[in-house]
Amino acid sequence: MPNRSTDAYETYLHDFLREDLWVCCPGCGLKAVVKTDPGADSFHAADASKIRVSCTGCGFSRRYAEQPDLLQSAEGSRRAFSASVRAGRMCDPFFYLPLWLQTDFGGELLWAYNPAHLRFLRHHIGAPLRERSGEEHANRSLGSRLPKWMLASGKREALLRKLDQLAEK
After folding, report:
1. 33 vs 56: CA distance, rounded Å
2. Cα separation, 22 vs 112, whole angstroms
3. Tens of pLDDT along 50-91?
4. Ranges in the chain, pLDDT < 50
5. What is each CA distance from 50 to 17, 38, 62, 115, 153, in whole angstroms?
């Protein structure tokens, strides 16, 4: 376990959108991958033609630029799409599919976009000392936006065990 976390106030949630996102496949419910545009400096500037979701389990595939107005989910419910991209939710911000890496933690939902996001959470939550960087806009950083229940020292060990379980998923 790390002794201190120093980069959490220079890291933003959208930093994890440059890598593959792990989601639940709407076709079979297994893990699918949303390939993003790693060259984009922000997810708003991403090239829509490069973003796609695919599942090796059932062959489901969809491009973000060609997505239909409605998509049938594995549970049979239909969900409307909009052109906006939403980050910071328990679904991917492009197709709004449920995240693969999520679990209940004492009535709260613990989630991550991908293994890199999971490693960040484990490092920051596991560090007994969390140093702020002094950056002017650090309050927008992921380290300052994590909920209090994640940062409570009394829940640290149990939360780290849950993060380890997610990493094994």
Report:
1. 9
2. 9
3. 889 999 999 999 988 776 544 444 444 444 444 344 555 688
4. 1, 4-6, 69-85
5. 13, 9, 11, 21, 41
